[in-house]
Structures are given as structure tokens and as C-alpha cells.
Amino acid sequence: MAKTLTKKTWRQMLLTALKTTLGSIAFIVTSVVSLLFIEPFPFKKIAAGTLKPGSCKALCIFSHFDKHDLIDAYVVRLLQELHACGAEVIFVSTCKSLGTDEIKKIAPYCTRIAVRRNHGKDFGSYKFGLQLAGGLEPYELVLFVNDSVYGPFYPLQPVFEFGQKSSFDVWGITDSWQTHFHLQGYFVAFKKNVFLSKAFKRFWNGVRCIPLRNLIVKYYELGLTKFFLKKSYRAGAWCDYMEVTQKFLQQSEGVEASEESITLELIRKKRPVNPCSHLWNILISDFKCPFIKRDLLALNPDGIDLGHWPTFLEKHTGYDRGLILSHLKRVV
Predict the structure, then answer these.
(1) CA distances (Å), 281 to each of 165, 225, 252, in order?
(2) For the chain, percent of residues with pLDDT exceeding 90
(3) Are residues 166 and 297 in the same domain?
(4) How confident is residue 242, by pLDDT bands cut at 50, 70 and 90?
(5) HSE (CB half, 13 Å, CA atoms) of 330?
(6) Domain check: are 96 and 67 in the same one?
(7) Do residue 139 and residue 149 come from a single domain?
């Protein structure tokens, strides 16, 4: 038995090493390709928004995509709330094109509206938005947001105040321990001591428009938090994963093993879950999380029990569910 276990262990180690090596090679190759062929020609169109650059305390780089080349009403609603919290927006879309009427919808909240080729996904758009911004000295906060969430269900001002008053240098809405600790990439904010640092420039200078999504997640979405933690910056979330799971376990006391949900089984076994999927309802009802992931409602990739989510949102929030339902009807 001992020899068999040893062989299995060696096989697992070799397989892990092989995957790591192949992943590294793929990253290097795609990075070189992005430097040679993609990044010199990053955009199709840039339009000016109504706002003057540097007129707000916060700068938001917003990443957008819509298969019908539209800016949906739920996106406009999110931009309105971000601006109400003192943010000006650089809007970067990877649509094939954006018509004049679409641009007019968001111009009052933006300094620039750009359309670029869909290379590098969100992080490619974030980097391009930073290039459009130029100097960041006028701002007190720089945040990166994408359109992969519906909301906000609650005012964002308390979230901004949390970030301002906290000891965190980098903060977000939710964090996750899947793979390792990281802030989830749909909403990440940086304080001034970070975004004016050499470390910040180094990270974004190193971002390449690589075409493989799993590598983007590994090196950038997961890698971002890890990179800044290694530089001795502090990172944390409005909805702390440990607090959320503890609350979930408290509410699940008395549930028998035979009646466990998938989520409860995983958490009791101390296996990290994606809070935006497995804990979506407690995030909204108990932690005032202002967002729900779009793919959760459209695809539900983890097979989570969503119940009758429109009724849940009506009970716990004042958000117009019609914004979600109309978008889902159009894209699903």
C-alpha cells in the first residue's frame, strides 16, 4: 500500500509540474505575441464624455462588452451610482462598435468612451483605460469595475466610506479563498499610496493582452492581490469571506448531514467556495452586498439553488428587477 501511495504521489507531482511548465510556456508565448501584434493597435474609436478629466475625486476604469453592441440600462444605472459617489468614468468597451445614441447614454458620467479589440478581456481594458487616463495625481481613489454584475442593490456610498476609513490599501466588494486569497475582480479599488507607487506601474506594465482566459485569471485576477500583498500592502473586502461563511454556518445549525446542500457540505469540510455563487443570498440579505453576478442568473455554472430570485430581491432590496429581467431576456 505504501509503495502504491508513493507512486501516486510522484505521478501527481509530475503532473502538477508539467501543467505549471506548460502554463508558463503558454504565458510567455502569448505575451510575446501580444507585444508584437496586439498592443500597438489597441483601439477602434475614442469619444469624449461630458466630464472633464480630474473633475472628480475618484477615477473608475469600466470594462464593458455586449454582443448586440448596446449599453444596457443596468450598466447605465451602475455608472450613475458610481458617479454619484464621486467617480468619473473611463468607459472601455470591446463591442464591435458603439453608436452615437449608445454613447450619449453614458456621456454625462464619463471623460472618455473607447472601443477596443477584445484582447486581454477585462484586464486588457483596464490597462488601456489607465493609458487613456494619463496622470493619476488628481485622484484619491482609482477603481476597476466591469459589467459582469447586476446592481447596485444598495447605495454604494457606504462601501466607498468603508474603503476610505479602513486600513486596506487595496479593497473590493467580495474576496475568495479559491486557489488562494484574492479580491474578486469585478470591483477592485486602490488608494493613492498604491496607485502612485512604482509597484502599481510595474504590475500594469506587466499586463499583456493574452488571449487565454484561464491564464488571465491565473496571472492577473488571482495574481493582482498576491502581487500587492507581496509588496506589503493590505487587502480586504466589504463582505469578508470568513465572516460570511461563519454567518452561513450559524444559520445552518441543526441541519442534518443527510439534508446538507452542496454549499453547506463544502463549507463544513472547509473547502473554499465562490461566495458570489454559493453564498449570493446571504451576501445580499445579511451583508448588504450591492451586486449579484450576471452569469449566476444567466448560466448558474455551479448548479446553485437560486430559488425565486426576483422575489428575494424584491424582499431585500429596492432595485428594479426589470433591469435584470430585460437584459436576461435579450442575451440568454
Answers:
(1) 27, 25, 14
(2) 77
(3) no
(4) very high
(5) 16
(6) yes
(7) yes
